[in-house]
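== Folding the chain ==

***
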Amino acid sequence: MLFDLNDRDKAILELLSDRSFISVSELAHALGVSEVTVRGDLSSLEERGYLVRIRGGAAPSMHRSILEHQKLHMEEKQRIAKKAAELVRDGDRIMIEAGTTTALISRYLVGKQDVQIVTNSMLAFSYSRTNPFINLILTGGTFRRETESLVGPIAVQSLASFNARLAFVGTDGFSLQRGMTTQLTEGAEIVRAMSKLAEVTWLVADSSKFDKVGFVSVLPLKAVHGIISDTGLSKEAVEALKAEGLEVLLA
């Protein structure tokens, strides 16, 4: 999301991002347009899942933390997701873990035929729902608004019913010493489950996450086949990762 927005759409979501409600009249005044124009903008944004219309105004449909994460390193995330999508073949079976970068992969599968996705990501669902050539399975589980993800025992158990050729997983930080780490235990459980059920697991993470350490240890880097990142990853880091036996793809 955030990639199909015009400037006024982005301004509306920015004004709404730190509030639980904003009125049509406030938006019209802030944007210098008519209330009729604002109502049209709100209807369009609601149809695309960005907000919820409430009498006299609108409320955010996503947690503030997700909106903030989507804004970070947007160009890099798009390039990384495109590079990851290139690995997907017609007829493939893949798993996509929740995250603002991983979810974007499904957005770039246009043109692929008969792809089966198993995911716990509501963002991936929103990107995939209109693609008739993608068959989408959601894991079920407890919905976490702050990550737009489905987690918990039900999500982990449902994954056990499937096998995939590829799994694309994310992380809050990765390093040679600590491996993959994250802030939430529930997210770590999903990554571990997907990595066991896929033939090949790719870590999908922008370069800003290298050498960052989160609260929860997820997996050692050797547990994944490789890493898809951006050209901001230093030459020294790339060489060190390759020395560990990882394939490194830069976008």
Remarks:
- The chain has ten helices and 15 strands.
